[in-house]
Write a structure and sequence with these properties.
Number of helices of chain A: 19
Strand content of chain A: 15-25%
CATH topology of the largest domain in chain A: D-Maltodextrin-Binding Protein, domain 2
Largest sheet of chain B: 2 strands, antiparallel
Number of strands of chain A: 22
Structural class of chain A: alpha+beta
Oligomer: heterodimer
Shape of chain A: globular
CATH topology of chain B: MetI-like fold
CATH architecture of chain B: Orthogonal Bundle
Strand order of the largest sheet of chain B: 1-2
CATH superfamily of the largest domain in chain A: Periplasmic binding protein-like II
Strand content of chain B: under 5%
Helix content of chain A: 25-40%
Order of helices and strands of chain B: HHHHHEEHHHHHHHHH
CATH architecture of the largest domain in chain A: 3-Layer(aba) Sandwich
Structural class of chain B: mainly alpha
Number of helices of chain B: 14
Distance between the termini of chain A: 47 Å
Chain lengths: 587, 324
Amino acid sequence: MKSRWILIALVAMAAMLFSACTAAPAAPAAEGEAAAPAEAGEAVTLDTVFSTEPPSLDPSLGSDTQSVWAVRQMFMGLTGFNEAAEVVPSLATEWSVSEDGLTWTYKMRDDVNWVKRDADTGEFEDLGPVTAGDVVFAVGRTLDPVEASPYASMLYMIEGAEEFNAADPAAENFEEMRAAVGVTALDDTTVEFKLKKPTGYFPAITGLWITFPQYAPAVEEHAEQWTEPGNIVTNGPYTLETWQHGAYMRYVKNPLWFDAANVQIEVIQGPIIESESTAMSMYEANEIDMMADPGWSPPLPDMDRIKADAALSEELLIAPRTCTYYYGFVNAKPPFDNPLVRKAFAAAVDRQSLIDNLLKGEQVPAHSFVSPGNFGNAAGDMDIAPWMVMEDYAAQLDQARAWLAEAGYPEGEGLDVLLMYNTSEAHAQVAQAVQAMWSEAFPQATVSVENQEWQVYLNTLLPDAPLEEKPHIYRLGWCADFPDAANWLIGVFRSNSDQNYAMFNSPEFDALVDEADSISDPARREELYKQAEQILVDDVTAIAPLYYYTYVRLYKPWMTNIVISPVTGDPIHEWTIDTAAKAAARQ
Amino acid sequence: MGDAMRSLLHHRLAVSSIVFILVLALIAILAGLINPYVLQGYSDALAATNQAPFAKQTLQDNYARPMTESKNPDLQGFVYYAGADNLGRDILTRTIYGARISLSVALVAALVSLIIGIAYGLTSGYLGGRVDEIMMRFVDFLYGLPIVIVVILMQVYFKAVARRGDASGIVGVILDANAALGGMLFVFIAIGALNWIGMARIARGQTLSYKQKEFVEAARATGSGSRRILFSHLMPNILGPCIVQETLQIPGYILLEAFLSFIGLGVDAPTPSWGIMINEGFQALRSAPHIILVPAAALSLTVLAFNFLGDGLRDAFDPRQRGV
């Protein structure tokens, strides 16, 4: 009798083991299916997953790719970007600049209306046209110190913007300062910006989500709840229907949009899944249509199989992307206040091996910060930090060891270094690979890795967060908000930037980028940006760029028209789906 | 006792479990000498880069299938018998080192739980009355604490302090102890804090029933003090059932450690815990299923072995259960 019980126990254990492995993928799949039985005659649906809860759907407050993706589906701004990264008309039909380059005037179209979807009835309510006043309201709100927008400093070229953003809300002249911000509605369809200094790329700034118009009554009535379904008022091709926090999101087509007749996809929906391997199994089970923003890229462990598989390799899309993956050094934290230590650690990474053996997405080893595809990038200039990307890695390693010895830490003796990254399977693999590279390069050094959730991580890294809480080295990527080096060098590493987590502070660098910002001669600007890169990456090595991103994505064959935007937030309203093929595959 | 021992030795599964556990313990202790790198003669290659065998990674070899040779020029001819993981680390080596974690968790957690639990339960049961009432309500209170959340908070707090690098006093002592244990202190605390309460209840129950027995009365009548009654009369009687119970709980400790490591709250990377290895293998399950296989098998076998051993012990010590 006894042996039979043991057998049963063994079988039960095995069953538990396997159910433990499959339970995770099964649960969300069931949810996705319950919400969307994809049958003929149903709404045309783009099924995806969301890689994380968007931190904010408020155009003034979003700062990460997940939030910006959502804002770009729901709102439209004065300008937009086409596939070639050029600025194109969107809400504005035309714009002009004054002789001195300081006054920009935008003419807006009058057929775009504010729309609110009633959460109970599902009715769409037309709340009247989007006016120049809505743009003025939104810009003022982004700059309002009470809102504390993390991107406010991107608008500092506007007259009075920096002063208002830095003002004390209790000050007597606070409302006067708000009024002094250089953006005015000349009439309902004309908006005028006055700038402090000529900024040649200003039309790109009005394509940033932080300048997108907002509907003041909704914001004022619901305060921070205004981005919830039923409260939110939008003017873009889609609007928010459902947001189960931490679980599920669903966007629906705005039938009252001026170009609604040309929008085929009617629903974008999916669960929030924080595991890329789970998303991948959903993709292979035909439960989702893509492995791309706002979901996940294909997981690193699956890349070899995807490339070898006849069907999956056809669905794989690899294209250059204007992003750079880098490890930043907290320049203020000893021993990384010593440039030689920073250079040694930046050099002791075999970038090509990382790409060939781990990432496998045709990324390009980086030796500068601004990625290819941006105006003013120095990626092709091999005078900048060539020692990061040498053909002969052994020689590069010797150089790294020599620098560290020169800094007073032969073989890394006495170094205890913490590398931190935000929680993700892919970042963890890169971090552990780099950790091993450093351990091999500097045998006496101790390198530990640690991860934090995205929100916590950003708070740890904030320039004014306590230095002792910070790691020595942190991981971040930067993607172009608009394809110009100004967005990268001024936006991230100018000494007063909120994104300057490296705490890099060089007056010489600031002077170079400021000069480049205030002139319009392209050749001269390019030259100045190169000099700035030379300081940032080569001379003092505030950061160690690792690679320039590529888009690595999977799209099901029934995704028939994919338009990829050079900035975050693909225009899904331009995409099409072959619904018959999709339904057949999901049978 | 002789009877019990004989009974245990007749329990074939229990005996094989004991052998399995002893061999595993031996492997764990000798991991530094019998891992594949040493056995295949590559220890010099590792020593040159000052890397522990379980942390040695060769990116070119990631996802290497079982029985393939390394592509690393420094490790020419080295065979990955169980394959390599996502970072090109030898899975067999990591599994062997992982046994250290699981077995030390089993040992330490069992000892901690046994010592605290018995002392607490004995005191509570023997003193009885109001003291018993208060002590047991405290145990009830501990049952209600969400212990995993407490452990997460502790981890976050101590890691933040460690990063500051100016820890002094008790916090500094705790951090040093954690470093000395390879980052396992909090796993021990989590498991110890969670499990002595059950043991305390069993010990108390046993004490309550034995303290009414005639031999205790007799001891008291002949003038024995409390200490003598506790340690010479009560303790030997409750020890047997408590040890049996504890052995049956060991699989739970091992699984809890694996679970904590699986969700990233266990030992620090790159120390290999089976839980971490299973997590890494799980991520690559679709493309490289061999990664999860060896650590999962090791974990299941170890847990089964401790279960069978506990069963055997229970049967041996409790004649009423024999043959059921």
